[in-house]
Amino acid sequence: MGLSRASSKLVSLSFLFIGLLALSVAPLFLPRFFIYLTALVLLTGLLATSLNLALGFGGMYQFNHSVFYGLGAYGLSLMLIKTSLPPLLGYIVGPVISAIMALIMGIICVRLSKLYFGMLQLSLGSLVWVVIYRWYSFTGGDDGLHGVPIPQLFSSVTGSYYFTLVVTFFCMVILYFIVHSPFGRILQAIRDNPERSASVGIRVRLQQLIALVIAGFFAGVAGGLFVTVEGSAFPDLLSWTLSLELIIMCLLGGWFTFFGPMLGAAIIVCLRALVGGYTEFWTLALAIILMLLIYFLPEGALGFFERIWHGKASASGEVK
Amino acid sequence: MKRSLISIFALFISAVIVVWSVPVQAADEIKVGIIDTYSGPPSSYALDVLDGFKLAMNKINASGGVLGKKLAYVTRDDKFKVDLGLTSAKELIMRENVNLLVGTINSAVSLAVSDLAKKEKIPFIVTYGKSSNITGAKGHKFVFNMNENTEMIGKAAAIGLSKRPFVKYWIAGDDYEYGHAVADGVWNHLKKIKPDVQLMGQSWWKVGEPDFTPYITSILSAKPDAVIVATGGAGCIPFLKAAKNTGFNEKIPMFMHTATELSTLRPLGLDAPEGVIGTSNYYFYFPETDANKVFVEEFRKAYDRYPSFGSLIGWYTANFIAKAYEKAGKVDAEKFAEALTGLSIDTPIGPLTVGKFDNQLMLPMFMGVTKKVAGYDFLIASEIMTIPAQEIVTTEEEVKKAREQK
Amino acid sequence: MDWLSTLTAGGLVQQFIVGLSRSTILFIVSSGLSLVLGVLRIPNVAHGSLYMLGAFLCFSIASLFDNSSMGFWIGLALAPFCVAFVSLVAERTLFSRLYDREHLMLLLFTFALMLLCRDAVKIIWGSEYRSLAPPVALQGSFSVFGMLLPKYNLFLLGLGPFVAVGLWFLTQKTKIGKIARAAAVDRDMVGAVGINVSWVFAFVFVIGCFLAGLGGALVAPTQNINQGMDHTLIMEAFLIVIIGGLGNVWGALLGALIFGLTDSMGILVWPQFSIVFPYAVVVIVLIFRPTGLLKSTW
């Protein structure tokens, strides 16, 4: 067992290395549009992974994750537009704003469980959305902010791609270590059995709150990357339908796996960009994918492959 | 289990195939990329624009095309979403290699794509986005606006309303950029023309508000002389309907920018309230010129319905594109943009000119009052008053000021 | 502040009555949502879509009768049943297999259903705005002491108590209601006494969806019928259910009253910022009573 585990780790590491190599030389071969699309996939994947920290590993119904994404995007954009502070500072300020909001919303929501948590977060998120949507003089209201002055170095398609790749890579590494740290294990223990965790002395609420803040922070990073790639920030980024789409990405890729959300994001973003632009019936396609998934693949694509890979013959009913 | 896996796999493969199937690029084509909202409620406006565009395009191609090339178009659906609009615009520019972009009804998408057009140096012609920022504060060399903007609406309405005896006004509208921009535009200009007007109060409801009755009753209890209603596309129809149900239009006169437009009145049929004052840039029954009659006739023959303002926008956008390329002499983005600035063509509502300093099309405005007329199964505008383009377009100083302020 | 001078007793009463009639619709729809949530544990995001379906069906049935007053009444009577039938089919073929899954899966599944409904409506009815006139008897408004009371809103107001009493009777007095309430608390126990829980669930689900369809058919004459209807409503309905207490039908009534009245009074008091009032109330309620005002059923 130990040997096969080590070898499988080696295999995954080499896969990762090849993938990274391919991604870093991609701009030499791929047309510009696909470079842009890949950047979009990477940052959405980071966003979905950060959601999964709360949802898949923390077991919390984070229904309005996109609020933190949008706040990160607005934080960066507003700093670049309104102030003359060094632009790179904005990439810190945005996520910090998201993290603070995650803390505030977390303190209010975390004492509730499951569906109540999700619903309260949804209504608090709507309030944030209303403020952004209405505050014309500051946030640009429903028109949003366009033509954000991104630093010259990453304003081109290739530049923004490399920036996104590097930032996403480092964030993913950090998230990976968080998930596999003692803290990550405690979080999963709380998810599986909150009562038992509390009885062995874990401060359940505090641990969950920390997870929410971390998830919010990385969502803010993803928001900043979005602004870098698109040059715009707008209220749609905070909408609850986007949040549900993110949950679908986690589900599609597999939410008990680390890389699942990234895979889910890749599938959804590509389909959305390609099917969405061509046909009217993108929502129909999404609905059908989702239904098939819930019926046949509740542990997600990557979860399914991992199960095959490890030869675990457990039933799909274990998802709980 | 297996089957679902296969279906997911098949979807993925088909996506990959779409990705790699590089679009066929005909060398003798001028390709126009149209991004607009083709799903959801705004799609009826977008389809009117598209049909008008097709009508003109077919005619241009039938008579030899532009510079010996055929005019062609591809469409993308932005679903009224900024991110999808941006992705589509990038796809059209980077993958389809379109020569220019046309679209969209959503002001936010228009502004976002306009910024992209500036970066990519691709001309972008806005067809239905009404924000005055498009050609005002955020205007640049490559962006053009082919419909009226909120500033123009404000000026035209102020001129029209100042000729009526109202003094005490109430302002109500959709609580978003367009609503506030229209309301501010009307009010600021009205105050300038007629300083004794008073503002009694304001009501703002959220976009997509399902029920206007509470707002209407609260305005009624305040008893203003007239109400300025600043609702956008989605709000107009339900508001007019609520006005009719509550008898609002019979008690207090109201002005609503698009109230007399065909796109608003046709879906309401005979349920629309009478006596509502509205402005529009085009009626298929006015002006009664031969050019307009020919256009209406051709449009009806092709699509079996009356043309709306959107159809006219599509029609003259195609004609402007053709004329600008001919003037530029070759298919070149920079040359095209220079040629289109200040260009004039003849249209069913008379000659129209693109503004020299802001690329905003100078449109006249018609103010009318809704009325039931025998022969139509919807209401039409009566007592039409023309407000010439020169009186409502943004002046050079105003544009300069707006662009400096950002 | 200008509004103070325009604030009159008549205006207040008028606004109150209009707010109440709005609450009625919200109550009808959100009580259905609450019922399904309480008994079946399904957070039905597609509830708004069924409401939209109700409005579209009412429109179509009425237009079969040349939009006459009779047509509207027939539409109002039939549309909720059509919606109930659709929901019965959906419940039997789709939901009944998913009851043992966790809430998140069910929520996502109903989200998929909502997307499906939206495109189905687009395919069947197109994306143009639709409009339906109220029956002749309910057009216009009464003028009482200088107040303007729209007749249709009064009609809605009169209907509210009937629905509330009907629901009370159904859940408290009938056998199936009692079984459903028992199943909400402990579904295994109810199954153990030999009751077919699956059909009880189907019944409750259909009743909930019937209410959504009824709400949709009732609002059809007051607003434009379009594809965005579901989106605006579902959020409000969920907020109402949450502030009322999940699964508690009386909570839904209380929540709907709070929501509808803050909305309409807010418009009168501070029109520029009325958009914020209902949301702010929801947040205040939830900060002090995080599980809603009344006892939730789970």
Keywords:
heterotrimer, A: 320 residues, mainly alpha, 2 strands, C: 298 residues, ABC transporter involved in vitamin B12 uptake, BtuC, two-stranded antiparallel ribbon, 3% strand
Q: Residue ranges of chain B: pLDDT <50 for 5 or more in a row? A: 1-6
Mean pLDDT figure of chain A:
85
Oligomer: heterotrimer
Uncertain runs of chain A with pLDDT below 50, 5 residues or more?
312-320
User: How would you state the average pLDDT of chain B, rounded?
Assistant: 86
Please give the CATH class of the domain at 151-285 and 364-405 in chain B: Alpha Beta
Largest sheet data of chain A: 2 strands, antiparallel
Largest sheet of chain B: 7 strands, mixed
How do the strands of the widest beta sheet of chain A line up side by side?
Answer: 1-2
Strand order, main sheet of chain B: write it out: 7-6-8-9-10-14-15
CATH arch. level architecture of the domain at 151-285 and 364-405 in chain B = 3-Layer(aba) Sandwich
Spatial gap, N to C terminus of chain A: 26 Å
CATH superfamily annotation of the domain at 151-285 and 364-405 in chain B:
Response regulator
CATH topology of the domain at 151-285 and 364-405 in chain B, what is it called? Rossmann fold
How much of the sequence of chain A is in beta strands? under 5%
What class do helices, strands and sheet pairing of chain B give? alpha/beta
| Count of distinct strands of chain A | 2
Beta percentage of chain B is: 15-25%
Would you give an account of this structure?
The complex is a heterotrimer of chains A (320), B (406) and C (298). By secondary structure, chain A is mostly helical. In chain A, 77% of the residues lie in helices and 1% in strands. Chain A has a domain at 29-238. Chain A contains 14 helices and two strands, in the order H-H-H-H-H-H-E-H-H-H-H-E-H-H-H-H. In chain A, helix 3 (66-82) runs antiparallel to helix 4 (87-109). The radius of gyration of chain A is 19 Å and the shape is globular. Mean pLDDT of chain A is 85; it is low at 312-320. Chain B is α/β, with parallel strands linked by helices and 406 residues long. Chain B has a domain at 151-285 and 364-405: Response regulator (Rossmann fold, 3-Layer(aba) Sandwich), CATH 3.40.50. In chain B, the strands form three sheets. Chain B has a seven-stranded mixed beta sheet, sandwiched between helices. Chain B has a five-stranded parallel beta sheet with strand order 2-1-3-4-5, sandwiched between helices. In chain B, a hairpin with a 2-residue loop joins strand 11 and strand 12. Chain B is globular, with a radius of gyration of 22 Å. Chain C is mainly α and 298 residues long. Chain C has a single domain (22-288), classed as ABC transporter involved in vitamin B12 uptake, BtuC. Chain C contains twelve helices and two strands, in the order H-H-H-H-H-E-E-H-H-H-H-H-H-H. Chain C has helices at residues 3-6, 9-40, 47-64, 69-93, 103-125, 151-172, 175-185, 187-192, 197-219, 229-244, 249-269, 277-288, and strands spanning 141-144, 147-150. In chain C, helix 3 crosses helix 10. Chain C is globular, with a radius of gyration of 20 Å. The model of chain C has no long low-confidence stretch (mean pLDDT 83). Chains in contact: A-B, A-C, B-C. At the B-C interface, strand 7, helix 7 and helix 8 of B face helix 2, strand 2, helix 10 and helix 11 of C.
